Each structure stands twice: as structure tokens, then as C-alpha cells.
Target: galactinol--sucrose galactosyltransferase
Amino acid sequence: MAIAQTILTKDLVNELGLIDAKPDKLRGEMLDLPAAFLPCTKILASVDRPPFLKTNRWSKETTEEERVRKASERSVKNPKEIIMPPRSSKASSYVTSPVYGCSDSVITLKESNILANGHLILSEVPPIVALIPSAYVASGEKALEPAPGCFVGFNTAEHRSGHIASIGKLRGLRFLSIFRFKVWWSTLWVGNNGRDLKHETQMVILNRSDEGCEPGLARPYVLLLPLLEGSFRASIQPGLDDFVDLCVESGSTKVTSSGFRAALYMHAGDDPFALVKDAIKVARDHLGTFKLLEEKSLPAIVDKFGWCTRDAFNYTVHPNGIWEGVKGLVEGGCPPGLVLIDDGSQSVCHNEDPVTKEAMNHAVAGEQMPCRLLKFQENHDFRDYESPRGEAGGKGMGAFVRDLKEEFGSVDYVYVWHALCGYWGGLRPGAPGLPKSSVVKPKLSPGVETAMEYLAVDKIVDNGVGLVPPELVEWMYEVLHSHLESVGIDGVKVDVIHLSEMLRENYGGRVELAKAYYKALTASVKKHFKGNGVIASMEHCNDFMFLGTEAISLGRVGDNFWWTDPSGDPNDTFWLQGCDMVHCAYNSLWMGNFIHPDWDMFQSTHPCALFHAAARAISGGPICVSDSVGEHDFELLRRLVLPDGSILGCEHYALPTRDCLFVDPLRDGKTTLKIWNLNKHTGVIGAFNCQGRGWCGESRACTINPSNIEWSAGGSPISIDGVRVFALYLSQSKRLVLLKPSESFEISLEPFQFELITISPVKELRSAAASAGPVQFAPIGLVNMLNAGGAIQGVEYREGWVEITVRGWGEFRAFASEKPRECRLDGRRVGFEYEGQMVVIQVSWPRILTGFNPVSRIEIGNP
Model:
């Protein structure tokens, strides 16, 4: 088919099904496109009218087409428009191209195929699909030529509230994806073909390949990222015959559209981690509705040990119980810096109860969903609290929070729980002092209907939600949060976030309702909780990521920690534990660009407690337990928590290693989950046998290599230029391994076993003796702590000496190829051991605090 360059005219715009435009505004605004498309005034189009522009494009043309259409409609419960290519047609090369900046893209559409660097990605692309190269670049950077990404859109003949458009066939390409398996939780899925995809997929990464390619001509990694467009939200799902389907929906029959210009973004690159980060930077500039994690500050609780009341009390939490819980942890040497008062402190009632009756003390797990918020103040257990100091101490929640912080000096932060809509069942209509609300019957989207059945969802759907209309939600959060701030609460855990998408019909659709709620929540958090005093939970959907993260910088990245089988089977204690690790590790690939990953609480006395503790120790997020009062494993907790209530956190957030990206550590029967992270001066790898979710009784082997760590990642990369040897310390087997950069070693793990490997670049030091050769040295850290390398705050090399600043206490180790003559601790000579090429020094908790940061100064050398 002949291709010519055509100037974009009003007639062509109208025939494209775009908005009616004035002749003098034939640019990005006219197209309802983002600002970066302003230079895109030329379009490559077929001289002959492209088939998808014809008015009757989807009329009955052949028996075969009708068969495909009917089969497609049967594939969904609530049929929407199913857009499939006719078997005999090919797509035209319909690609917009900016005149300035970006004139080409690595990703192209040619003869019905989407190619990346000339390699086939999607075949049999329908004629309705259009690609627009992205002209976005990071601030201060030059435009790439060709551009690494492009937006994908499509045009249809009918206005509908939802469209399902096939964008091409995916065959024989290994992919990693993130999909929602519950309304509010997502996880990993891998496959090779379009049929392997899951509904409600939020992100797809296609693996790279350089097989049979000349340098520079390899097939790159390719990311598919569904976006928001106007009042519509997109996701990916499987289509017929290996087609990849793009589902675009408003959620309201009153909000319709017939065409989309940027419902999906595709990005190509050679680094899978940079690929996701760069693509989401483009989405940030394109949408302008959120901020990247790197643009926001984290709440201080990230560096604190926390105790959550959830499992200790269920829904009957009360001040005396919290007091005793904190007291027990303090007396055990593991004082919490954060107390999270989970669900149970609010004033709620059942639907059938009078508005004068609080019902939470009668609620058990599963019964809270029909309850609605009765007042913004806490329930009577907290309102009736009286300070032991008498009248001077006051009463109520404010007095309790003040007493708690004053009695236990480690408690710097107290957070409380509330749902996005106030409570699980929203607000009680007609309750005094509350904004107007009405009970709305929730409705699941077709994609979510394919997800895992869940008791909470069923109960919410059955009982409805007392929804505050968008125009009043700002007032709701203002009153709620101003009260919490007035009683000394430092932040909130906002839960049940994706409830709003089920309530969309009469409020402009899911995107518009979400915008109203997230805008109001953001404004209130900025005013009352320093802008970042929030833990987001049950938020695993792109609606929230793209609309709710302007200020929120911390959020849960995994399903709940299930200490027992949720169905009550006493023999199923273990089966969900491996899932928890995998959820968090892989979800962080995507979510970590919006929010800092929180791996959720766990119980220190659980049979798999050490397994969970190890993962959280190197997760880079906060560490929180939900132990019952007085039921703690302090030996384990002291490997996580310092005496001041702080933790040894990593500098980055944990992610799967490259060799784990396109495999399934839960189901493939062979892969060990490996995650990596960075401390200030060391890297760390965690290896976990999660196979079979714990049911598989076989041991698994994996290889460890220094290159498993992305040394250049994060805000404080570690230079390994010129490093010829790495020192690796294995926390469980307590041994040292020396490896060249090209070398690997193998470990084997039984089910629910793990290994944490601290990896430290070895530096060659000039010996004080002129005749002696160089001495090799690498700090390891406090090996009594699970994140040993996290203790190292600074390393300074000078002739004959190494000075290491350490935070914490316990057994410090460092690799040294020769035994040093002398070691000093805070300027005083101390005894030390030298075993297995490691210097061993006992470090006590420092008596003098330097800038509120308890550190010790270790000097090792040859005077």
C-alpha cells in the first residue's frame, strides 16, 4: 500500500472520529492529546482511506467475521464492544510522527506488525490501531533519536462506556506481567503467548533476546503499560487466538467514547529496571496526575520498628491492651517506634442498629464489612480513657496518645486505620455530624469478576456502601483528619482503597470518582499529616497509582500476611507464606516507582517467622509485627530492631534479580526467588525457596553472583569500577566466600529456607610496610543482624588504616586478607579475633549519641 505524508486537516480530523476542531487549532489541544504532541502536525497515512476510517467498518462483512464476533462476545460475562481484525485484512502503517524533537520510534507499526528494533512483537495488528511516538524526555535530557516508546490508541464507530480492542497477536515471546487476582491485590504472572495473559493486567514486560543478532540489533525488553485517558481506565487481558486485548472502560453507562489516542504506552530498552522507571516517567509527564517516588519524601516510620494491633485484638482493640503490648516490647529490648492502631478504634454500627449504638465490640472477622462509620470520633473505649495522672492528664484519645509517648520514649509515631470511604461499609446515612451519604450498591467490573472470589468483596456487594458524594468528600476528610491531628495522631493507614471503582455508575465513572476522592485525600494529608503521613493499603490498581500518589509515598505491595489458612483449615498454616514474598517482590517492580514498598506486618512467633523477617530485613521498607500481647520471639526481633526502636534499612527497595524476572518462583517447580537491594556500602541478596507455596517438599538450588545486584541503582549507587574481588558473607551458614566478578557459587535451600548474602566490594590497600604487598579489605557489618551490611554508615580508607562507622550493636565482621595489628573502638584499643580471613570485633550499644544517631567508630589497621 502506497504511503504518503499528509498534512493534518479539519476534514481528516473529523473523519478520524476526533473532536470537532477549529481550523486555526490543528495541534495537540485539538486532538485532546498531551502537550508533548504539540509538534505532531503531520501524519503518515495511506493515500487510500485506511479501512478503519470507514463509517461501516464493523458491519457484517463475512460469515467468518460474524463467527469471530459472536465467539468474542461469549468470552466475557457482560459483553462490551469486542474489536477484532478480520482474518483477511492487514493494518495500515498509520503512525503519527512529530516534526520536531522525536521523528521516529524504536517501536514501529509496519504491515500489520508492531516491531521493536526491527523484531516482531505483535502480529496481525488490527487496522483500527494507531501508534504515536513519544516525544517525552526526562528533565534536562536530550530527545532520544529514535524515541524508545510510543502511545497506542484505536478508533471505533460507536460511543460506548467500555471497549475491548485487540492490538495484535503475541506468540512465542516470554513475558512477565502484573495482574489483579483480587479487587485490591495484584501479583506476578508469566507466559509466552497472548492466551497466557490474565484479566486486569496492569503491566507486561516482554523479554529481550540477542540470539543470532549483531551488536546493537538485539530485540530489546518491551514494556506494555495501560494508562488512563480522559474518564477511561485501561488494562490488558487475553483475547481469542493469542490476541492481546486492551480493555478501556469508564465504569459508567453515562460516560462514553469511541476513540482513544493514548490508552497504552509501549517502551523499549536494554535494562529491565530502567525500562519500567523510564516508562513511568513518561506516564507521569503525559498524565500530570501523580509524582514519582523519587520526587517525594518518605515518612519517618520507614526507619522505625512498628507494632500493629491487628492480629493482637482483631476488632476489639482498646487502650489498656495497646499499653500492655508496647510495655512488653520495651521490656524485651525491642521498643516500637511506631504504634499502628488498626481497624477497631472507630465508632461504627451495623446497618440494622440504631445510630446511638456502637457495634464494633460485637464484630468479628468478616462481620465488619456491613458496618458503617457512625461518627468521626473514636469509639467509647478510647473516648472513655482516663489518664493515670488525673485531671492534669485529661481523658480521651488525646490523653492516651500523649501518655503512651511520654511513658515509652521510643514511640515517636501513632497511626490509626480508616477506609477510603470512612469504613468498609462507608458512612451511616443520617448519622448526626456526618456529611450526606447514600447507600450505593457496588458492582464489579467484568475484569474483576474473573478474579479470585473473596469474602470481603461478597459482603460489601451484598450490603452496599454509604458513599459521600464527590462534592462533599473534601469536607469528610477535613473533619476526620483534623480531629485525628488534634488528638496527637501522626498519620493514617488508608485501607479498602479500590472500593471506589465499584461505586462508579452515577458519579462520572471510576476515574472521575477516584479523582475526587484522591484529590480530597491528598489535600487533607498535606494539611494534617505533613503530606506523607499515610500508609496506602488495598491499592493495587492503576487508578490509584496514576491518581492517588501525588503526595502519598508509602504503600503495601503484597496481600495480607495470613498467619493461618483464611478458610480456617488448621493444617494449612504454611501454604500462603511463599506467596507473600513473591507478591511483594514482583509488585515492587511497578509500584516502587510510585510508592515506597511496604511488605506488611508478620508475627514473630509464626512457624515461618524467620522466613518473613529475613525478607523484610532487606525489603527497604518499614518492619512491623502484629504479635499478640506478650507473645514475642525476642531473639528473632533483636536481629531486626535496635535498642532505640530503629531498624537497619536498605537504601533502595528490594526487587527480583534479573535471572528471576521471567520465571515463576511459586509454580515452575525449579526457581528459587532471589531479591537484591543496596545498603550504603554493600549489596545484599536474599534467596528464598517459595516453590509450591510451601507444599513442594524438594530442595532448590540457585546460583549467586555479584552481578545479581544492580550496583548503579537508586539515589546512592555503589561504584564497582575496577573491583576485582567481592567478599560474600552468608548469614545462615555463617561463611565467607570470595568471588571474582565473573564467578558464581551455588546454594541449595529446603522448603521455606532462605539465605541472606551480604556482598561487599573488596578494596586493595597499600600496606604500611613498603616491602609488603597490598592488603585486601571489605567491611561486612553486624552479622548478628539480618541486614548485616545495613549497619555500615561510612567507610574511610587511609594509609595503613580503615575507619568504619557502624550503627547498632553486636558482632562486627570484615574481610581482611591479613591479620591487622590493632583495632580500636571509639578511639580505644580493643581486643579482636581473626578467623577465616575475617576480623571480628564486639560492638556495644554506644553511650554517646552523635546527632541523635547512635554510631560507633571502628578503626582497623597496622600502626
About this structure: Residues 1-103 have pLDDT under 50 and may be disordered. The two ends are 81 Å apart (CA to CA). The longest helix spans residues 509-528. The chain has 15 helices and 48 strands.
